[in-house]
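Here is a typical protein record:
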Amino acid sequence: MNLEYLDSPHDHDLLLVSQINSRPLRRLVQLALGLSTESMDLLTALTDRLRTAEGALADPATTGES
């Protein structure tokens, strides 16, 4: 994957990404680098929903949380 489009402030992030052993997780993080705050918020919300669907997080609809 060519990450040259990323600015140099992300060099530290790229270094950390290169240390992730899981290929799918590493790709996900690489793709997320440089996204806007709004897009990161959407990605986080989607991840929460996926984890809830897999039973890894409590469902806020059934626990009364929002």
Helices lie at 11-18, 23-32, 37-53, 60-63. The CA atoms of residues 17 and 25 lie 9 Å apart. The longest helix spans residues 37-53.
